[in-house]
Amino acid sequence: ILTHAFHGGVNSGAEDDYAAIITAKRRGITIDLGFEGISHTNLNVLKNAIDAGILPDVIGTDITKYSVCTLGGRYGMTMVMSIVKTLGMIEKEIFKAVTSAPARALGKDAQWGHIKTGRCADIAVLDYGDDGFNLTDCFGNNIKSDKGYKCALTVVDGRIIYR
């Protein structure tokens, strides 16, 4: 698994017009967004990759103690999903990248990642609506939207844990 593939600067995925990322994907390497707030993703690098059809296989938040406690701001899976949707990634690919693809990358695709009889079923019900955001990455690139995902309901082990 390669994370932070869409960061800016030296050795970024964009340095060779994404050839290294394309080659890695062909060789079976899982490409993880590893967003981590504003530090490990250059929004322009990610936007150009999405426009070229070079998508992250897995959308991870990569939330750390540093990002949450020191940098502050909004973090989380729904935020990262909102960002990639705003940048042009389609919902089918977004939901695959947060469900079945991570399960496969972890070797748990027989148990996780799909709603099916006999499988673990932790479920999040999301709403895409008036949950906008305005974010500037550490390279000065800004993204904003009036819309975003928010969690309406979470079920774990058959119990509602958030509503």
Please state roughly what percent of the residues sit in beta strands, choosing from under 5%, 5-15%, 15-25%, 25-35%, 35-45% or over 45%: 15-25%
- What is the number of helices? 6
Major sheet details: 3 strands, antiparallel
Q: Would you tell me the overall average pLDDT?
A: 88
Shape verdict = globular
Give the radius of gyration. Answer: 16 Å
Number of strands: 7
Distance N to C terminus: 33 Å
Return the structural class. Answer: alpha+beta
Low-pLDDT residue intervals, each spanning 5 or more residues: none
- Strand arrangement in the largest pleated sheet: 3-6-7
Query: How much helicity do the residues have?
Result: 25-40%
Order of helices and strands: EHEHHHHHEEEEE
Spell out the blueprint of helices and strands.
Layout: E1 2-3, H1 19-26, E2 31-32, H2 43-51, H3 65-71, H4 77-86, H5 91-98, H6 100-105, E3 123-129, E4 133-136, E5 142-145, E6 148-156, E7 159-162
Parallel strand pairs: 1-2
Antiparallel strand pairs: 3-6, 4-5, 6-7
Helix pairs in contact: 4-5
